[in-house]
Amino acid sequence: MCGIIGCCGRNDVAASLVEGLKRLEYRGYDSAGMGLIAGNGQMLIRRAVGPVAQLEAALADDFHGTTGVAHTRWATHGVPSVKNAHPHTDASNHVALVHNGIIENYQTIKAFLAAQGIEFRSDTDTEALAQLIGYHYKGDLFEAVRRALLEVQGTYGIAVLDSRHPQMIVCARNGSPLILGIGNSANWVASDATPLAAHTRNVIYLEDGEMAQITPDSYRTSKVISRETVVKTVERIDMEIEQLEKRGYPHFMLKEIHEQPEVIRNVCRGRLNVETGEVRLGGLTIDNRELKKIHRIIISACGTSWHAGLGGEYMLETYARIPVEVEYASEFRYRRPILTPEDLVIVISQSGETADTLAALREAKAQGTSVMGICNVVGSTIARETHFGVYTHAGPEIGVASTKAYTAQLTALALLTLRLGRLHHLMPETAFEIARGIDKLPKQIEQVLENSGQVKKIAEEMSQAPNCLYLGRGFNFPLALEGALKMKEIAYIHAEGYPAAEMKHGPIALIDKGMPVVFIATRDRTYDKIVSNIEETRARGAFVIAIATEGDEQIRKYSDRVIYIPQAMDMLTPIVAAVPLQLLAYYCAVARGCNVDKPRNLAKSVTVE
Ligand code: BG6
User: Fold this and answer.
1) What spacing in Å lies between the alpha carbon of 606 and ligand 1's midpoint?
2) Second label for 384, Cα 20 to 30 Å away, from 147, 192, 456, 511?
3) Where does CATH 3.40.50.10490 sit in the chain?
């Protein structure tokens, strides 16, 4: 979804807002824009189609001001164009607004205002709100914004400027994330903490239905509907700027793939005792008696997090013997799920802001069910609204296609499996085996990363294929889905993932000569079966790429290319095997000249339903 940022200071803010937008660009990159109040009180607006660099190039030397808002767009209403780029202004050109979210009743508002003689300049839902604020303005910007918000339905994170109030920004949140940054002689507002880390560590998280006014030296927060003042806690963010840099890698995605050994150490630090096979999850604030009452687990998520959830289902059912269902969050609430007090709903989200997953969380809470979160972004909405949870400590993930957050989520689910398994029937020796297996993961992934060169060659061989298939069995089936998603997301190759055996019931019809078929064919109890599946595809001319267990010479007979990975326990193999699949997609995308970190039509977290 879009990224918004604003600053009210004593010095020129244009350059800092551009830097801030670049940090937010993973939220959308269809167009960008900025509004500043110049020293002479005039409202200056600049907008450009495409990435923030286009806007930066369009900023003339005289584009300066000490109060400003900026926006990077992920288009929902109105094609990417200059007229649909934010900020949007009111009829008087005094008010300028940037918005993240969707105004659902914008057509009604537009019709009402048009009847008042107001002309609209864009196709967006957002302009309706800008015009409505102008319509309600009677000298008090805060009140004009509040009155307008009482009439809109939908989601928003907004920041509003008014040239009649040059040292003030009014902002508000409902459904889309919004954070205040409390600085020295400058205060900020932004969609997330990444652009704030360069300026302050002190932040305030706004909740739904809250609004705020910031000036260079003060801020106030209150409820939109009741005007009631809200006393907020200033919290600290522990994000280092270096974490937001590429550190010499050509892309954030490749940097994040290479961070996975350290990330998995972070997920386990202070939680996994390899000697005793014990797991302590500080955020799991319910006691063993309550945990034992859990009769069913429902995992709900979107995208890559959903694939991690599916992997978790195999782990929890196999080793903790608890029935698990995995639900697409976007379907969950509309399917009127049947939940009981003995259920535990687990929502998984890297960003902690995905609207569909948030809605699933709220649905489960509304039915009185305990909700646990597995999130990466500290202080995110989902993390704050769940009853308890586990942070994945993967650090900021900037590449739009998720990599390190995925293996961190699977590792967190493996720790949870160990924790719940020991409460149920998991044998101590199996618990030890799992604990030792988790402890070996970082080294095993380092080994796989050393072999990136071979993966790169294979990727270049398959990079011009229009289609490909990913096949796996058991624990490796969810990973086949994830491998295919990576290839779709960043290389735009139409890839499908399937349970290998399911292939012969239809998808095998897709296979023709030279079509790449990627098999996750590691040595586990499904090995013989998957070798037969490989032969079935070879018989139709497939170009078989096998992810195999090192030392398995037999697989060479059936495959065109083999990528070896170290032997790991069946439930942990997907964490190791994920890396060559991430690299395969990455090098294919590079070979095809795709924008790896900002793939077309995607955004890092989608905060609208
Ligand atoms: C998509 C991202 O917008 O949302 C994916 O492009 C991600 O990478 C999915 O997996 C779910 O996001 P989250 O933050 O809820 O895990």
Assistant:
1) 7
2) 147
3) 246-449, 451-604
